[in-house]
Amino acid sequence: MSRARAKPASPVLGAAMSVIGAAAEGLVPQDSRFRHSFEAPLARIHPDPDQPRKNFDEAEIAALAATMQAEGQLQPVLLRRHPERRGEWLLVAGERRFRAARRNGWPSLLAIEHTGDAALAALLENLQRQDLTPAEEARGLQRLLEQRGMTQAAAAALLGRSPAEISATLRLLTLPAAFLEGAGAVPRNLLVELARLEEGPLRDRLLRQAAAGGLTVRALRAARAAGPAPSPAPASESASEPGPVPLRPASLASLAEALERRHAAGTPLEPVERRHLAVLRARIDALLEF
């Protein structure tokens, strides 16, 4: 008795098996170490009331919305399950993207569920941003250290920065709060140099110059090397005992040394430096005429 011939495979079955195989390659493995993205309905996402960033520039949100409309959402937001509302979410990180998507009228947003420390993730996400002002960055670092009981060295390792950079950023908080609030246009390196000065008339004068936009790091270092100007005698004392204010040799020596170093550097004077030196030269010439 002859053996039965094997029936050829059905073309439809072969095509179905091919589709299943291709789909299986794209499935997330059960033992994956990564959390994968999903689409979350925008109406079920709520901003976190404890979000560390409170101010959002509407012009920046509009620009981001235009970019997302043209290029799509390039980075998912982080969400955590709402503790009180089943099926709803709280934002952990990505509120600017959420606001931009809402501005565009999108029905959903690409997201990843975050099950770790939400407050820590929000702080870290904000500290990694490039558009924070130095003051916002310093306050964020301070919250990180205080709320997490973290050392500066641990924060530096977590953020991928040097301990010296973390220390310099935190030192900005020693500057007057009113000055920091209005110092958005002052370069960060100049703020760091100002924070290294001790409180006193010299720092106050340089803070005023920085706020007015008339101070550079070079001019600040020259002023610091020259030392504080001699304090004028009290009005009552000068009225009762008129006389010349002594020129302290140590102050004159420091000034001369600073000028020599500045000359040896061979770099052009800044306009503010030139004005101060012109006034100083006129006063010296007037004294030498006596």
List keywords for this structure.
Conserved hypothetical protein from pyrococcus furiosus pfu- 392566-001, ParB domain; 5 strands; 290 residues; alpha/beta; single chain; 3 domains; elongated; Arc Repressor Mutant, subunit A; five-stranded mixed beta sheet
What do you see in this structure?
The chain is α/β, with parallel strands linked by helices and 290 residues long. The protein has three domains: 38-127, Conserved hypothetical protein from pyrococcus furiosus pfu- 392566-001, ParB domain (Alpha-Beta Complex), CATH 3.90.1530; 133-215, Arc Repressor Mutant, subunit A (Orthogonal Bundle), CATH 1.10.10.2830; 219-228 and 250-290, no CATH class. Helices cover 54% and strands 8% of the residues. The protein is built from 14 helices and five strands. The protein has helices at 11-26, 58-71, 95-104, 118-127, 134-148, 152-159, 163-171, 177-181, 188-195, 201-211, 217-226, 235-240, 249-265, 271-288, and strands at residues 38-41, 45-46, 77-81, 89-93, 108-113. It has a five-stranded mixed β-sheet. A hairpin with a 7-residue loop joins strand 3 (77-81) and strand 4 (89-93). Helix 2 crosses helix 3 (95-104), helix 4 packs antiparallel against helix 5 (134-148) and helix 6 crosses helix 7. The longest helix has 18 residues, at 271-288. Mean pLDDT is 76; it is low at 22-30 and 235-242.
